[in-house]
Design brief:
Elements (H helix, E strand, L loop, with lengths): L2 H6 L11 H8 L1 H30 L10 H23 L6 H4 L1 H23 L1
Helix pairs in contact: 2-3, 3-4, 4-6
Length: 126
């Protein structure tokens, strides 16, 4: 193949068919991160909703088991802090607990500031 033709081509894989989209997502760390964040936030939102539903049901039936608070905070720390904040607003759940009222926004702030700080250090300062 001609070297001039190779210089004109982009060396980035872009999807050309429907099945190639999966390869782009799986083959890219940014795609995997995006899929992970979407999934963990959706799961966190649903678990907060489930816990709220169980909290209402527990008033009538004592044997209902709730989701432990540490598991809810762990889901937020695993990347689902945006889903947790949204669920707290939508379901009005855990809004009076200081660990959630201050902890979840703090986790979200750290999840935004730490990668930005790492990027700033490696791309700009260093």
């Amino acid at each position: 193949m001609n070297i001039a033709l190779l210089a004109d081509k982009k060396y980035m894989f872009t999807p050309e068919e429907h099945n190639d989209f999966v390869w782009v997502v799986v083959g890219s760390p940014w795609g995997l991160l995006a899929v992970w964040l979407i999934l963990i936030n959706a799961v966190t939102f649903c678990v907060f909703g489930l816990d709220k539903w169980k909290a209402k049901r527990k008033e009538k039936k004592e044997s209902v088991r709730r989701v432990p608070e540490k598991n809810l905070l762990l889901l937020a720390a695993a990347g689902g802090s945006l889903g947790a904040l949204l669920a707290m607003r939508v379901f009005h759940h855990k809004t009076l607990h200081k660990a959630f009222r201050f902890g979840v926004p703090l986790i979200l702030a750290l999840q935004i500031l730490i990668p930005f700080g790492l990027w700033l250090y490696f791309a700009v300062i260093r």
